[in-house]
């Protein structure tokens, strides 16, 4: 009964990662434990985002937080009691992820979009992994119900030295894993631990992420471009030329469609599955673009590359960038291999003129 197999042979994210990690005899399950705590955080945020949306709609949000009641201690996620003063969801999500990551006992340094300073985990709870994350990217979209998400990247420190910022100011190509969890009509977690990209969808009745998108590969070409055209007056010449070509192709091909949600996780998820490009270029207003290197550009570039695409900053391969500050920004062009090749050629030609 092969047809029934997938119904009874539930491939959960934990089982999937355990299978993958078992290929490395030396691995002691630390990554699996770390991931299970990240997954816990995603499940919590998923329910909170959905409830907050509802609470807002039925007017409860003004008074209280509709949060899950007390969690048992073993998952070490502090209880979020009923009645707590309404906290912005991104602040609450940040607290949940930090508590979950620290309590995993496998992290050393945490960098969050919500915290100005890096968090150095206390020695008694220290592990080998450094996690950089945006707990709720695109949270300004919550009120209109647009999909938002958590983005994370994971570095591993080589030895037991006293942690310093240098452990996280590493090029994205040093990441051992990256992923995002999109909170939309369904809750989808996309992950790469270095070999390919896989997508898992939360089955609320089981409380488990089930493998639904095995071995995702981004199409080599794409019919969609994704950028905030409102910034067009500030674009540099290669960017303007690429978008002009998308709109008015000279080779007789049909023009591309513009799709821009304004929530990076949603725009990148569509790009990963359907192909095309997602771009947040530098412009005269923001010379380094808007998106943050460590917990937006690197994790998404890691995933796109592992799915067969490319990610470029306008000057170099995005994952080769060496950040000097933990909240540094960079322009990014990511997506289908052939599309990014065209953008790289336009920037190279511009470079030759200079
Ligand atoms: P703009 C959301 O605020 C965000 O950080 C990303 O999720 C999104 O891709 C980008 O900013 C949208 O920025 O300037 O186009 O509104």
Automatic annotation (TrEMBL):
Catalytic activity entry: beta-D-fructose 1,6-bisphosphate + H2O = beta-D-fructose 6-phosphate + phosphate
Keywords annotated in UniProt: Carbohydrate metabolism, Cytoplasm, Hydrolase, Magnesium, Metal-binding
SUPFAM superfamilies: Carbohydrate phosphatase
Enzyme class: hydrolase
One Gene Ontology cellular component: cytosol
Domain (Fructose-1-6-bisphosphatase class I N-terminal) ranges: 11-214
Subcellular location: Cytoplasm
Sequence intervals crossing the membrane: none
Protein name (record): Fructose-1,6-bisphosphatase, cytosolic
Enzyme Commission code: 3.1.3.11
GO terms classed as biological process: fructose 1,6-bisphosphate metabolic process; fructose 6-phosphate metabolic process; fructose metabolic process; gluconeogenesis; photosynthesis; sucrose biosynthetic process
Cytoplasm keyword on record: yes
Primary localization: cytoplasm
């Amino acid at each position: 009964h092969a047809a029934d197999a997938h119904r009874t042979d539930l491939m959960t994210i934990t089982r999937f990662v355990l299978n993958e990690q078992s290929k490395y005899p030396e691995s002691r399950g630390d990554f699996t434990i770390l991931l299970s705590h990240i997954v816990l955080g995603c499940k919590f945020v998923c329910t909170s985002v959905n409830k907050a949306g509802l609470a807002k709609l039925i007017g409860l949000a003004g008074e209280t937080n509709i949060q899950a009641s007390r969690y048992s201690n073993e998952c070490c996620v502090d209880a979020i009691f009923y009645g707590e003063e309404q906290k912005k969801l991104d602040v609450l999500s940040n607290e949940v992820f930090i508590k979950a990551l620290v309590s995993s006992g496998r992290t050393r340094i945490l960098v969050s979009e919500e915290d100005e300073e890096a968090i150095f985990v206390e020695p008694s709870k220290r592990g080998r992994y450094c996690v950089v994350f945006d707990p709720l990217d695109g949270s300004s979209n919550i009120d209109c119900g647009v999909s938002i998400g958590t983005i994370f990247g994971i570095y591993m420190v080589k030895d037991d030295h006293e942690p310093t910022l240098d452990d996280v100011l590493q090029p994205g190509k040093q990441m051992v894993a990256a992923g995002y969890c999109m909170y939309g009509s369904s809750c989808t977690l996309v992950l790469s631990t270095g070999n390919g990209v896989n997508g898992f969808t939360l089955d609320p009745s089981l409380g488990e992420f089930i493998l639904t998108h095995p071995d995702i590969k981004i199409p080599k070409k794409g019919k969609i471009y994704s950028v905030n055209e409102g910034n067009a007056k500030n674009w540099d010449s290669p960017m303007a030329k690429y978008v002009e070509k998308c709109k008015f192709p000279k080779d007789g091909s049909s023009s591309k469609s513009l799709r821009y949600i304004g929530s990076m996780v949603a725009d990148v998820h569509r790009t990963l599955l359907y192909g095309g490009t997602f771009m947040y270029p530098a412009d005269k207003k923001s010379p380094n673009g808007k998106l943050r290197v460590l917990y937006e550009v690197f994790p998404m570039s890691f995933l796109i590359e592992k799915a067969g695409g490319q990610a470029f900053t306008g000057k170099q391969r995005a994952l080769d960038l060496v950040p000097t500050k933990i909240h540094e920004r960079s322009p990014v062009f990511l997506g289908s291999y052939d599309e990014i090749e065209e953008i790289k050629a336009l920037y190279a030609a511009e470079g030759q003129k200079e």
